[in-house]
Amino acid sequence: MPAAIHSDSELSEFLLRACHDLRGPLRTIRIHSELLSRAREGSDRVREGSSRVGDGSEQSLAFVQNSAVTAGVLVDGITDYALALAINESRFQPTPLDVMLRSAMAKLASQIRESAAEVTYGELPTVRGDADRLLQLFEYLLDNALRRRGSNRPAIRIDAELENGAWLFTFRDDCTGIEAESLERAFTPFARMYGNQRPGPGLAICRAIVERHGGKMWAEPDADGCVIRFTLPEG
Predict the structure, then answer these.
(1) Alpha-carbon distance 152 to 24, whole Å?
(2) How far are the Cα atoms of 131, 156, 184, 232 from residue 209, in angstroms, in the given order?
(3) Do both 100 and 199 map to the same domain?
(4) At which of 23, 54, 85 does a domain end?
(5) Taking the complete model, does pTM exceed 0.85, yes or no?
């Protein structure tokens, strides 16, 4: 398998962005923890068995909790990306991708059910690869589409065809599309793509997994949603 291009710079960029994004929620945790501490010390309205420690304390606690969740998501993203970069070809084995996709759908069953998403797929091949990471690939692709869903029932379709000695996969959805000028930016870790919604490192992780399996991944403009294509070597 050819070495991934610019792997060191990719990792450096990811860690810098992640660390920058971690500072915000951690600063919020520190500030509002201090506010809670002062409210507790100065409050004379605490009643036994009550969680209310003074005016504004519940809002501050909510800020702390939300920031902690955000920090946890960022740390999880760093871990997943590091695992993708550490893929070792010695672990490769024949991996049926239809099984990987169904397993990913099972892991995201609650999100799929909540959105009433329709996920369909054609015949998918067996390839040599790291089964855990290929499962993660489909999980993040599905999660990315579900994050962009609108008010309508989302439809997601996955197909594969053999082309020039490699498998070409097409992942198509009718959720909120990606502007043509932002197609490459969609693969930047933690880039803000949909207003204030932070999609996380999902597509960056997907590309890292595909590249370290000897393939390529890109996005294409589509009037009805989003199309992501990627290749994997035959066999």
Answers:
(1) 33
(2) 11, 21, 16, 10
(3) yes
(4) 85
(5) no
